[in-house]
Design goal:
alpha+beta; TPD1; three-stranded antiparallel beta sheet; 7 strands; four-stranded antiparallel beta sheet; signal
């Protein structure tokens, strides 16, 4: 009987340790926005590729990016990938989840890269 109790305590301790290391809550800080020049020029302006990725194991939906002053010459990003909600906020991927390892990408062209900070995301854990 004591052996069963001892095993039970070890199992609880193991679950506690696993929970501390692997059950990190996801949030906006797990969304990464990177930009790089593509080398292409559109209407005399540099083209940039934006990659929005999720570094957390849980998918995150309703990813919102601050996009005050965002502008692009030439073709605008596909609105199902990146579109303005109001004067300062854009939604990514039509609000659909972004999973770890499945980044969302789009391009735009402008003289300088836009500031695109993450302002919100809803984890689905």
């Amino acid at each position: 009987m004591a052996a069963i109790g001892f095993k039970f305590l070890w199992a609880l301790l193991g679950l506690y340790i696993l929970n501390q290391g692997y059950a990190k809550k996801c949030g906006p800080s797990d969304i990464r926005v990177t930009q790089s020049k593509t080398g292409e020029v559109v209407e005399g302006q540099s083209q940039f590729e934006v990659t929005i990725s999720n570094t957390c194991a849980c998918p995150q939906s309703n990813v919102k990016i601050g996009c005050s002053g965002f502008s692009s010459v030439g073709p605008s990003p596909n609105p199902s990938v990146f579109r303005m909600l109001d004067d300062s906020t854009c939604i990514v991927n039509d609000g659909k989840p972004i999973a770890n390892g499945s980044p969302v990408k789009f391009t735009y062209a402008f003289a300088t890269p836009s500031d695109l900070p993450v302002v919100g995301a809803d984890p689905s854990c």
